[in-house]
């Protein structure tokens, strides 16, 4: 596999049953491509230390709400973690090592930090891929609460989630049950990568955006939208043979896509000049 070493580690981690994927390891392997000197063990040990310190704070009665309150006190009061509202689209917010070092991040990376601590103290929690704002919740039947890791561990109920959605989209939004379903580990990592992809595209960091898409395609091979986007990046980077292969595959998969005619014209132009 002709990938950077960090990419190979990422592939090895995700190339196993979903529930066996270690999210922290996979996230650190994502970060390794940006920070080649990064040692994942150092940050995994930091998570172990945090969890051990939380364990010491836990009350004798380990009810879900009390455990959440103990984690919140430790992360947000003792350590000072905070959602990055000042520079939300700083790519460092999407790298777990930077989140741990700088004690700031975006909803999904702060959720990952929270989930990893909860897992280490045997408190099962799951990620909730609500549109526009990632949440987590204890993984108990009918527990009825959600945790907003970006907003200092704010505890939400379903009515609050619906209100939050309406605020995000600036119109009344009905809370569809699918909005608060747990996400798989692969979907969790894909959402992290989609954030990075959009950031790098907006910053015109084409090579970095391309590397992100390649990892998305490792998670979900053959996804037509990612093949199209990779093909368009190849085109912009002058790699026209690779661009044609991806865009032609896209047209085979979705021949009636809204952008199919424009993609066909682009492929024809490239083929004429190859």
From TrEMBL:
It comes from the Bacteria. Transmembrane segments: none annotated. Residues 42-193 form the Protein SirB1 N-terminal domain. Belongs to the UPF0162 family. This is Tetratricopeptide repeat protein. It comes from Aerosakkonema funiforme FACHB-1375.
């Amino acid at each position: 596999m002709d990938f950077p070493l960090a990419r190979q580690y990422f592939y090895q981690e995700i190339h196993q049953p979903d529930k066996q994927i270690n999210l922290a390891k996979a996230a650190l392997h994502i970060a390794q491509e940006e920070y080649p000197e990064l040692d994942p063990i150092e940050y995994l040990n930091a998570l172990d230390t945090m969890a051990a310190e939380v364990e010491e704070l836990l009350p004798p009665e380990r009810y879900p709400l009390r455990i959440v309150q103990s984690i919140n006190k430790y992360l947000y009061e003792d350590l000072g973690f905070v959602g990055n509202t000042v520079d939300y689209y700083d790519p460092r917010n999407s790298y777990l090592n930077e989140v741990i070092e700088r004690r700031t991040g975006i909803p999904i990376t702060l959720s990952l930090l929270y989930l990893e601590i909860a897992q280490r103290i045997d408190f099962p929690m799951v990620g909730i891929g609500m549109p526009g704002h990632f949440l987590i919740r204890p993984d108990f039947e009918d527990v009825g609460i959600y945790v907003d890791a970006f907003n200092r561990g704010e505890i939400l109920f379903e009515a609050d989630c619906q209100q939050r959605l309406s605020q995000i989209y600036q119109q009344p939004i009905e809370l569809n049950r699918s909005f608060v379903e747990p996400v798989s580990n692969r979907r969790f990592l894909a959402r992290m990568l989609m954030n990075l992809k959009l950031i790098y595209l907006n910053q015109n960091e084409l090579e970095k955006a391309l590397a992100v898409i390649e990892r998305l395609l490792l998670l979900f091979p053959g996804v037509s939208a990612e093949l199209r986007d990779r093909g368009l990046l190849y085109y912009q980077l002058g790699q026209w043979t690779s661009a044609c292969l991806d865009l032609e595959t896209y047209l085979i998969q979705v021949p009636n896509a809204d952008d199919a005619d424009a993609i066909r014209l682009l492929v024809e132009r490239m083929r004429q000049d190859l």
